[in-house]
Amino acid sequence: MSDDEIKQLCLMDIDKILHSYGQTLKDYPPMHLAIEVDSFLLTKRVIRKELNFNRDDIKKNASDMLAIATAEQRYAFAKIVTAVYCDEGGFFFVYGHGDTEKIFFWNLMSAEIHSMGDIVLNVASSGIAYLFLPNGRTAYSRFKIPLNITEDSICNIKPGSPQVMLLLKAKLIIWDEAPMISRYCYEARDKCLGDIMRCSPTYSKDLPFEGKVVVLGTDFRQVLPVIPRGSRQDIVHSTVNSSYLWKFCDNMDGKSEICLLGDIVIPSSDQAFDELVHFSYPNILENMSSKDFFKARTILAPTLDIVEEVNNHLMAIILGGEKLYLSSDSICMDEGNMESQLISMVLNY
């Protein structure tokens, strides 16, 4: 890339930033104005940004991480990498509750694909989760998903744009915090990839996302899609496992997910919603007596009555006497507390 091309790209970026504040480069006469650059140059810059890493270092990192990965993580890793490099296509859901090192797994997958000199698009549904991903972006930003999503919405990606070429070259798409947004977001991306992938040798209209390997992940027991004034049925209808895409999700050991750690599973789409929000064991209170019960366990109580029942049962099986601790909102009048001394002086004045 020549110095003049770099200069023009910088001017375009500055002009874009100024536009967000209601100004342009024309408001600063000493500054040069940006001229229209070739779309190929923009595409080249977008692709280069995603490949801006040292392959040798990345390969070593991938090898080191794989060496300490769990058996479940290695199994998921092998399954996904095979789908990527055998051009089989694939739609996976990697399930992992808290403390199962999901971010570790995303970084492992990204490092492996990057070590081959290929592109991974890491996105997340929330503006915080993407910060933990290599070159992470929010899904809305990366795929130009409308904020007010509907069943008929499509991604706002223009034909021939750099985003199109980036999606074509990407070997893998990783989407973290998947269950917390509407299924229409995934369906909009599926329709978008349907138009983009027609020119790709791996295009397959019979596969989800037209043959592009996509991995969703996180925990269904966290935040589900927020539907204003929506009923339970509305929330269930908007989740990703209610989408027509879910039937293509890789089925492993009879479950529609890969468990990174632990033995708690989420229900498949044909099970009732009550089974989704309840704990895996049908008789919660009976199983609490087991000493192994609280290893990697979480109880989801859909009503306050169940919360109270669980709390009362736990208190009943805890050994020892009951002790009452009182809280206080007043400042501790300690001699070393300067603030308390000032208050005392004011009160005594």
TrEMBL record:
<dbReference type="GO" id="GO:0043139">
    <property type="term" value="F:5'-3' DNA helicase activity"/>
</dbReference>
<keyword id="KW-0378">Hydrolase</keyword>
<feature type="domain" description="DNA helicase Pif1-like DEAD-box helicase">
    <location>
        <begin position="70"/>
        <end position="255"/>
    </location>
</feature>
<protein>
    <recommendedName>
        <fullName>ATP-dependent DNA helicase</fullName>
        <ecNumber>5.6.2.3</ecNumber>
    </recommendedName>
</protein>
<keyword id="KW-0067">ATP-binding</keyword>
<keyword id="KW-0547">Nucleotide-binding</keyword>
<dbReference type="GO" id="GO:0016787">
    <property type="term" value="F:hydrolase activity"/>
</dbReference>
<keyword id="KW-0234">DNA repair</keyword>
<dbReference type="GO" id="GO:0000723">
    <property type="term" value="P:telomere maintenance"/>
</dbReference>
<dbReference type="InterPro" id="IPR010285">
    <property type="entry name" value="DNA_helicase_pif1-like_DEAD"/>
</dbReference>
<dbReference type="Pfam" id="PF05970">
    <property type="entry name" value="PIF1"/>
</dbReference>
<keyword id="KW-0227">DNA damage</keyword>
<dbReference type="GO" id="GO:0006310">
    <property type="term" value="P:DNA recombination"/>
</dbReference>
<comment type="similarity">
    <text>Belongs to the helicase family.</text>
</comment>
<dbReference type="GO" id="GO:0006281">
    <property type="term" value="P:DNA repair"/>
</dbReference>
<keyword id="KW-0233">DNA recombination</keyword>
<dbReference type="GO" id="GO:0005524">
    <property type="term" value="F:ATP binding"/>
</dbReference>
<dbReference type="InterPro" id="IPR027417">
    <property type="entry name" value="P-loop_NTPase"/>
</dbReference>
<keyword id="KW-0347">Helicase</keyword>
